[in-house]
Amino acid sequence: MMEKLKRRAQVLKRDAYALTIAVRDPRVPWYARVFLGLVVAHTFSPIDLIPDFVPVLGYLDDLIITPLGIALALKMIPPEAMADARRQSEEWMQQGKPVSRAGAILVISVWLVVLTVLVWLIVRQVIE
């Protein structure tokens, strides 16, 4: 069972790299590129959307949201484009893990919006 999980993790990692390549492929429809961009930014962001120290929800991000996003993105890509991207991703995997600055900016932006709304709600309650 452990070997099966390791293999599945390896395939997921390869597909995440392949999505990074596929997002730039002109054969991929524009709506899929937008979704792919979000999935890739989230997957390779050095900052988690939900930090791991948050009980249960922290790991929800890593165990459910990321694989689900990758699975949905894979369904949007034409098979021939995905096959080419997977071949290229094999080479990338040997070179190291990419880090997405766009993903970090996206996560920081989401947290800033959440904090701004919370501060606004608190200030509104204090004034009333």
Automatic annotation (TrEMBL):
Superkingdom of the source?
A: Bacteria
Pfam assignment, any one: DUF1232
Q: Which interval of the chain is the signal sequence?
A: none
Annotated membrane-spanning segments are 98-123
Q: Which residues form the DUF1232 domain?
A: 32-68
Report membrane topology. Answer: Multi-pass membrane protein
| Compartments where located | Endomembrane system
What is the official name of this protein in its record? Membrane protein
